[in-house]
Design a protein that fits this description.
By secondary structure, the protein is α+β, with helices and mostly antiparallel strands. It has two helices and ten strands, in the order H-H-E-E-E-E-E-E-E-E-E-E. The chain has one domain: minor pseudopilin epsh fold (3-Layer(bab) Sandwich). 30% of the residues lie in helices and 24% in strands. The chain is elongated, with a radius of gyration of 35 Å.
Length: 242
């Protein structure tokens, strides 16, 4: 009976000595990032963020341009309905006074009897970055960036030819204590207009040191509508359509 007990003790001693000769491994402490690795990560994040903000900015301007096109169409519709309802001429007027940069070519007003006894019906404001192009006869180089500003169909200088020319500019107080310059298109008492023409919106940036507070950016970034003599509008989504 002693032999099995002795064998068991020998095996236990053998395992004990083996455990002592092979100490338990401790998990390695997690190592942190080196300074170079951190700088590389920060640089990559900066590049990604720059690309993202650039895309968001471009998308925001495109949205502003579409919204401005819709606003201008709504203003024209309001002018036509007012003329038909009241039986008097109604103007679609766009602010054209460089002395007031916050309103310049962004404020659109529907005005009854603008040539005799002006009565403001309603006022619209275009989104940031979006402005109404003037009539091409009043669209000097100082108001636009260099480039080919010819329309795709007509090959004439782009511009809102729906505005009257000549005589499509008037000085009148519209939501202002003083008279300011406005460019306008006129809807007759029957809801018609004299001929057809375009109303165009484009993107612009503030200008410093020039005669105008803004400069239109690019002829490739315009939208608008072609308006028939009956006051009906067809939406145009790029330069090639004008």
């Amino acid at each position: 009976m002693q032999r099995p007990r002795l064998l068991a003790l020998q095996m236990h001693a053998s395992r004990t000595s083996l455990s002592a000769s092979c100490p338990t491994r401790r998990p390695r402490a997690a190592t942190g990032f080196t300074l170079i690795e951190l700088l590389m990560v920060i640089a990559v994040l900066g590049i990604v963020a720059g690309i993202a903000f650039s895309n968001v900015g471009g998308s925001g301007k495109a949205t502003a341009l579409r919204s401005a096109q819709a606003t201008l169409a709504n203003a024209l519709s309001a002018a036509r309905h007012r003329a038909l309802a009241r039986g008097v001429p109604v103007a679609l007027a766009v602010h054209d006074d460089p002395g007031n940069p916050s309103r310049y070519r962004r404020m659109v007003a529907v005005v009854e009897s603008i040539q005799t006894a002006p009565e403001v019906v309603t006022v619209f404001e275009l989104p940031k970055h979006a402005y109404v192009l003037p009539h091409r006869s009043r669209f000097p180089e100082a108001l636009r960036e260099p480039g080919d500003w010819a329309g795709g169909s007509s090959q004439n200088l782009l511009g809102s030819t729906r505005f009257l020319n000549p005589g499509g500019v008037i000085s009148v107080a519209i939501n202002s204590p003083t008279a300011e310059r406005w460019e306008y298109a006129l809807v007759t008492a029957r809801g018609t207009m004299s001929g057809s023409g375009a109303l165009i919106v484009g993107l612009a940036q503030p200008a410093v040191g020039g005669p105008f507070p803004i400069r239109f950016e690019s002829p490739e970034r315009v939208r608008g509508m072609l308006v028939s003599q009956y006051g009906l509008a067809r939406m145009i989504d790029g330069r090639e359509g004008f």
